[in-house]
Design brief:
196 residues; alpha+beta; four-stranded antiparallel β-sheet; two-stranded antiparallel sheet; 8 helices; 8 strands; elongated
Length: 196
């Protein structure tokens, strides 16, 4: 008994892949088989049965290929999603002290440093896993290369202008720490104490 269907045209004129059952064997061209596929016995031991309409048929991929696809989906789903920033704040802080806010944001693939600022200020509580992965890779690279930039070189934008970085950080004070709002609040307190 030979039952086979040739290549036809599917939706929108896209050619369909041939599938066939010949002499009780079915071709499976799934991800666990070599190029061109493997012929397997057309039984319920190897293929899941599709019960639609009057004529039951087998799925196009064997059980092993279908379970491989499900397992791959589960693994891929682990790489996506959100995590809490509080667990990885040390990564962002160290990157910022080593490279500066804008350079660290650029290396983590963020479009602007404003998102970095919202993470550092605690306004953004969750971050995508791939952003954390990029940040950890950037930190690892900076640690391996022992890359630490002087705060004045960061402020003056020497690397962005293509100028050589002259100053080398020697002390903790030479590291970049954004002071913006904290410094303004500190100045307000000092002024309040002077008036009183």
């Amino acid at each position: 008994m030979t039952k086979s269907k040739g290549i036809g045209r599917g939706r929108k004129g896209v050619p369909r892949k041939p599938y066939s059952i010949k002499d009780g064997m079915k071709l499976c061209a799934g991800p666990t088989h070599p190029e061109g596929g493997t012929w397997l016995p057309a039984t319920e031991q190897y293929f899941y049965k599709r019960l639609n309409g009057l004529s039951p048929s087998f799925h196009s991929h064997c059980k092993r290929c279908r379970s491989h696809r499900v397992a791959k989906k589960k693994l891929d789903s682990l790489a996506y999603g959100y995590v809490m920033v509080s667990r990885f704040r040390f990564v962002f802080e160290e990157l910022e002290r080593r490279l500066g806010r804008k350079e660290a944001a650029r290396r983590c693939g963020m479009a602007s440093h404003h998102r970095w600022q919202s993470i550092m200020e605690g306004k953004q509580r969750r971050v995508q896993k791939r952003t954390i992965e990029r940040a950890m890779n950037a930190l690892l690279e900076a640690r391996i290369n022992n890359e630490v930039r002087h705060r004045r070189d960061i402020k003056w934008g020497r690397a962005a202008r293509g100028l050589p970085e002259v100053l080398k950080p020697v002390d903790q004070r030479d590291l970049y720490v954004p002071t913006g709002d904290k410094q303004m609040e500190q100045q307000r307190r000092y002024r309040g104490q002077e008036v009183a």
